[in-house]
Design a protein that fits this description.
- The protein has seven helices and seven strands; from the N terminus they run E-H-E-H-E-E-H-E-E-E-H-H-H-H.
- The protein is α/β, with parallel strands linked by helices and 167 residues long.
- It folds into two domains: 102 residues, no CATH class; 61 residues, no CATH class.
- A five-stranded mixed sheet has the order 5-4-2-7-6. A two-stranded antiparallel sheet has the order 1-3.
- Helix 3 links the parallel strand 4 and strand 5.
- The two termini are 31 Å apart.
């Protein structure tokens, strides 16, 4: 698990690696990393889910950071890219060679609710985001979901997941 302080240390090291290679990188964070870093909703996360560019150079720099700090090589990964739909991003951190962005709480709620994984922190994260956004009904959550995902992509499991949270 990586704490907020450790994540910031690793991002600064990543910035230094990119800078040493003459690269300006960009990344948008998702999942537990945003919950930990931006919303202070939890003390740590197991990895950093992000979309980043330039991809090859970014992976090389991340591997060097992993080696330096004894992290697994997938400490930062882009597996989330298959779940990302167009959304607004805001600047979270601007370093000399690395710009770090995050999605809105609404978008993160939509992603977490669509995933509806019971074997992760998704339920706690969704509850936190519902409270943060002052939502008072399942329909309010579904309205947000439908801003980003077509209604036919919202699985019954997601519907049950959200309704159970409000019971």
């Amino acid at each position: 698990m990586m704490t907020k302080a450790e994540i910031l240390t690793y991002l600064n090291a990543l910035d230094a690696e990119l800078g040493a290679a003459g690269i300006k990188g960009e990344m948008c964070l998702y999942g537990g990393t945003v919950m930990c870093l931006a919303f202070n909703a939890r003390p740590a996360t197991k990895d950093i889910d992000a979309i980043f560019q330039p991809t090859t150079e970014f992976r090389d720099a991340a591997r060097r950071v992993a080696d330096r700090f004894g992290l697994p090589h997938d400490w930062i990964n882009d597996a989330v890219k298959g779940f990302v739909v167009p959304h607004k991003q805001e600047t979270f951190l601007e370093l000399p060679s690395l710009s770090v962005y995050i999605p809105s709480a609404e978008y993160l709620l939509a992603m977490k609710a669509i995933a509806a994984r019971l074997d992760t922190s998704d339920k706690d994260d969704v509850i936190f985001l519902i409270r943060k956004l002052n939502l008072s009904s399942p329909q309010a959550v579904f309205d947000i979901l439908e801003k980003y995902y077509p209604k036919n992509q919202i699985k019954p499991a997601t519907q049950f997941f959200i309704e159970e949270i409000f019971e």
